Inverse folding.
């Protein structure tokens, strides 16, 4: 299985100040912004057209002493790879249960390492979907069935489009084309 690091999500105390800092320091652009859970705001940042986000910042860090890591995310090649990780997590007693989650643009399993650091293992879907989006998927279905269910759930979301089209738009926004 080919596993590539993709992004991390940090909990922060001052969302706007932190987003401004990363945009100023690294030239990141805000890819999306919205609410997850109970009025927790999240901002997705990227410095490249190839990634919807490389860093996301979400509200909820209570103090400097409190940890800031929500999760590190690792990309794999297929839904079958994600299913294999899901099944491994379910069988391993060092970690808690894994949560099958889909953001529409990805099919993921979330779990935590033995010290509680969050991990997301995901594969891309062929589509861009405005974020944040959180739903679940059924690990007992085949990969094709999972993909069909994800499409059916998210294709009505405003801005749903093929990933290549989104990347072209982003390449232009980042001044990468030409
Ligand atoms: Fe993530």
């Amino acid at each position: 299985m080919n596993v590539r690091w993709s992004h991390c999500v940090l909990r922060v105390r001052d969302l706007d100040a932190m987003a401004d800092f990363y945009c100023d320091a690294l030239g990141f652009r805000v890819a999306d912004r919205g609410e997850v859970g109970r009025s927790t705001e999240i901002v997705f940042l990227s410095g490249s057209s190839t990634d919807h986000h490389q860093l996301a910042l979400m509200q909820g860090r209570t103090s400097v002493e409190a940890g800031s890591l929500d999760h590190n995310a690792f990309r794999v090649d297929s839904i079958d790879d994600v299913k294999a990780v899901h099944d491994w997590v379910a069988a391993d007693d060092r970690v808690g249960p894994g949560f099958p989650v889909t953001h529409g643009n990805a099919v993921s399993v979330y779990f935590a390492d033995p010290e509680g650091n969050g991990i997301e293992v995901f594969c891309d879907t062929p589509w861009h979907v405005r974020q944040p989006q959180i739903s679940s998927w059924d690990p007992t279905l085949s990969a094709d069935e999972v993909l069909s269910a994800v499409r059916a759930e998210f294709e009505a979301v405003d801005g749903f489009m093929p990933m290549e089209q989104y990347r072209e738009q982003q390449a232009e926004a980042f001044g990468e084309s030409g």
Notes: The first helix runs from residue 15 to 26.
